[in-house]
Amino acid sequence: MSPPVRLAALGLVLCFAEGNGPAGQGVPQSPAERVRALAGAGRLAEAERLAREGGPSLTVALGEVLLLRGNRAPAESALSLAVRNLLPRYRSGHAALAELAAGQGDRDLARVRAGALASAYDRSTGEGWTAEDQTAAGRAYVILGADDPEAVRAALRVFDAAIAADSTLLEPRIRLGNLFLDRYEAPDARETFERALERAPGDPRVRLGLARVLAFEERSEAFDAVRQSLAANPALVPAQVLLGKLHLDAESYDSAVAAGARALAVDSTALAAWALLGAAAWLRGDSASFRAAREGAYRKHPKPVEFPGAIAEWIARHRRYQEAVRLAEEAVALDPESPQALGVLGINELRTGVMDSGRAHLERAFARDPFHVWYKNTLDLLDQLARFRTITAGRFRIVAPPREAELLALYLGPLLEEAYDTLAARYEYRPPTPVRIELYDQHADFSVRTAGLTGLGALGVSFGTVLAMDAPSARDPGSFNWGSTAWHELAHTFTLGLSGHRVPRWLSEGLSVLEERRARPGWGDGPTVGFLAALKGDRLLPVGRLNEGFVRPRYPAEIQFSYYSASLICEMIEQQWGRPALVAMLRGYRDGLATPDVFRSVLGLDPAGLETRFSAWVRKRFAEPLGSLSPWDGKGPPQGELVDLIREGQTLLAAGRQEEARTQLERAAAIFPDHAGDDAPLLLLARLHADRGDPRAAAEALGRYTGIDESALEANRMEAELRERLGDLAGSRRALERMIWISPYDLANHERLAGIGERLGDHRLAVRERRAAIAAAPADLLEARYQLARTLALAGELAAARREVLAVLETAPGFEKAQMLLLDLARRRPEGRER
């Protein structure tokens, strides 16, 4: 999630707020009302002509229309004339002049103009100011808020006063909503725009405000909302820019460019539109188009800070973090005091592991804009991160809360080393090291590290060679697998690095999920009843639109469906074209090829051809369960024979009719053996067998189930107990080790696994688990350290055992078991040598 786009022109297009909407929502009578109605409908040429014919009383309206058309010099002349001569609406003209200076990067002039208007309001205490005048004062305070936090509070108060003075006026509501959103107060922004919508249902500017909120919340409805705004006013430049940004997020670059071109056709000075063209060109590797956009921005603006700043912000959403740093540095060079430029630079430096510089730039940004939630949250997080412990584990730096860092590193270090070597061989690429991985014991902190706000639903993120993820303590035990999450994020490090961070989101996510499945049995996403019903109902996104499912899903489950779909596409490609095809695709993106060109050069297909092949492949793969499900229409839970069998089996179990239940559940398991969840047939069958006193059958069913569900904590616990009871120590060990990747904090599990390791003669396992038991902060630490010393002695590590037992006796000299162990170690020590 990125901050809302800061459009310098946004204030300039929201000036026509005295009426109740665009043309067609009433019959305007006065010339001023007709100008506003025409401008609100996007009929700018007619609005300008009518304003020119209206004489001095419409001078401000003329200036505002000229601004909408990008004619800044004549607009400034008209507005200045109105202010000098105190013509009607001159205070609105004064605010527009201040915004014009701010939009041109002239911070000093903007402050002078805004300061004069705000001072006049302060002196009068608002006495005699109309609601529109008060709105103008609020606009001035917004500009002053870039340097003075108190001015932001003043803006809020004045906009509220304007609304109280004239509840029919839209302008202060729209301004207030945008002010909330620019400070990340999305709920307040939504409420403000919804109230405005009640008064003016068809107003395009209000629709745009709601669209901005929806885009901020990454909701798919943002597309419809902004299109509704443009249907009412096709010349609304910020709406075209927002539409283009939505297309940019979905990697639909041609559509983004088209939206930017439409915006510039209305206002050739619209810096955000130039930035949109520049971002699309940058992401496509089109240097000629980028230079053209850059030249256009610099030609129209003497100091176009927003051009590199907005591009940096937008391309960071496409994982181009290092390039975002370079562009943000350019923005800061243009305006060293710009909080937006400093903030984008700091955030992306932190993402690339440049921690000290990132913090310094973020502190400067926050000093200028202390209401910016992202900056505040991140600085608070950095204070906490400074107290974390960093453990070096081979090629990795593991950063975690001190109380659990040792325990997590004990397992994570070897896993990441294994993953690095495995992935390096698969992708014929070795990312630079060390790789930094941060684990957060509060999900809100991980969310802030990723997106500046709490509420992110993801488990982990890869910025390249900097990874961040939830620690297992951040979520309820059994809710996720932290080992597969770490493997997933490290896989991104390889696919991002090999492709020069140009890999499409769907391909990078698909490969990461596929690599999870290859890492361990049961890891990674698998098929679900919901996925299969959606597949049968044609509710899954095609290959060409799969990115949309990650950035703005149409329904909640579409995110997870998109992850799994992407992994299946990658699996099919590897199956039919071989592993080198995946590597070649990533290298093709690195070399600047677009997706259709990558498909043609590597696979010999266009996107439509790949979609046709994939559709046939995936339907054949899941033919049996598909045949037992009804097509999902997007409403309610999935239906069909498979669902009925499971439901009937559960009902029969509850009624105690076990044999009949077994028949139904075995039929369901045969149809769809990969089904996971509380109602999974295999899980229900395991419980049935256990209740009937058949531990072997229960263990067999559990073994099949734990091989498909990576976070089945209780199922693994039950399997471990059953297999140990049956004498299958190796099987019990496997189940206990799977439990560690779901929740590593259970001291009893570590002690139990250590005991099994000793019984199997696997002393390396036993020593690891004794160390884990100590790291888990046991109530009796001395006993845990004694057990470690004893296990080290069994492993033949006599010197280490001696050091450990001596440390125990220093604390508790009378610890009899430790004394006996020390004597035994002395007898076993090779003569003449101290090990």
Short description:
The protein has 835 residues and is an all-alpha fold.
What does this entry look like structurally?
By secondary structure, this protein is mostly helical. Among the domains are: 1-217, Serine Threonine Protein Phosphatase 5, Tetratricopeptide repeat; 387-498, Glutaredoxin (3-Layer(aba) Sandwich); 504-634, no CATH class; 641-745, Serine Threonine Protein Phosphatase 5, Tetratricopeptide repeat (Alpha Horseshoe), CATH 1.25.40. The protein has 43 helices and five strands. The protein has a five-stranded mixed β-sheet. Strand 1 (389-393) and strand 2 form a beta hairpin.
Rg calc: 32 Å
**In which order are the strands of the major sheet placed?**
1-2-3-5-4
How many runs of DSSP E, i.e. beta strands?
5
Helical content, roughly?
55-70%
For the sheet with most strands, the description reads:
5 strands, mixed
CATH class of the domain at 1-217 reads: Mainly Alpha
Explain the layout of strands and helices.
Layout: H1 31-40, H2 44-53, H3 59-68, H4 72-84, H5 90-103, H6 107-124, H7 131-144, H8 149-165, H9 171-182, H10 186-199, H11 204-216, H12 221-232, H13 237-249, H14 253-266, H15 271-284, H16 287-300, H17 306-316, H18 321-334, H19 339-351, H20 355-368, H21 373-385, E1 389-393, E2 396-400, H22 402-427, E3 435-440, H23 443-451, E4 460-462, E5 466-470, H24 482-498, H25 505-519, H26 529-536, H27 546-551, H28 558-577, H29 579-590, H30 595-603, H31 607-621, H32 623-627, H33 641-654, H34 658-671, H35 681-691, H36 695-706, H37 713-725, H38 729-740, H39 747-760, H40 763-775, H41 781-794, H42 798-811, H43 816-828
Parallel strand pairs: 2-3, 3-5
Antiparallel strand pairs: 1-2, 4-5
Helix pairs in contact: 1-2, 2-3, 3-4, 3-5, 4-5, 5-6, 5-7, 6-7, 7-8, 7-9, 8-9, 9-10, 9-11, 10-11, 11-12, 11-13, 12-13, 13-14, 13-15, 14-15, 15-16, 15-17, 17-18, 17-19, 18-19, 19-20, 20-21, 21-23, 22-24, 22-40, 24-25, 25-28, 28-29, 29-30, 33-34, 34-35, 35-36, 36-37, 37-38, 38-39, ...
